[in-house]
Write a structure and sequence with these properties.
This is Transposase. It comes from Paraburkholderia franconis. By secondary structure, this protein is α+β, with helices and mostly antiparallel strands. The chain has one domain. It contains one helix and five strands. Strands 1, 2, 3, 4 and 5 form a five-stranded antiparallel β-sheet that branches. A hairpin with a 2-residue loop joins strand 3 and strand 4. The longest helix is centred in the last third of the chain and has 19 residues.
Length: about 70
């Protein structure tokens, strides 16, 4: 998980391993969560799948930043 502070919110980027068979290449589903203080403000669904955990987390953070820019 990646996290960052942004405009008074805490943003989380999540990577969820998507691998049904050990012979498959690892893929990671991305999602994002926005919190203010200790409360969840908004959470995304699956934003897409990525080949790396870092890319998935970065996508989640980017979604959260865009949400804050449009709603915050």
């Amino acid at each position: 998980m990646q996290t960052e502070k942004y405009r008074g919110y805490t943003l989380w980027g999540h990577a969820i391993l998507q691998q049904e068979d050990i012979l498959q290449v690892e893929r990671f589903a991305a999602s994002g969560t926005i919190m203010r203080d200790t409360k969840v403000v908004e959470a995304s669904g699956v934003l897409g799948t990525f080949e790396s955990e870092e890319d998935a987390e970065t996508s989640g953070i980017a979604w959260a930043r865009a949400w804050v820019d449009n709603h915050g």
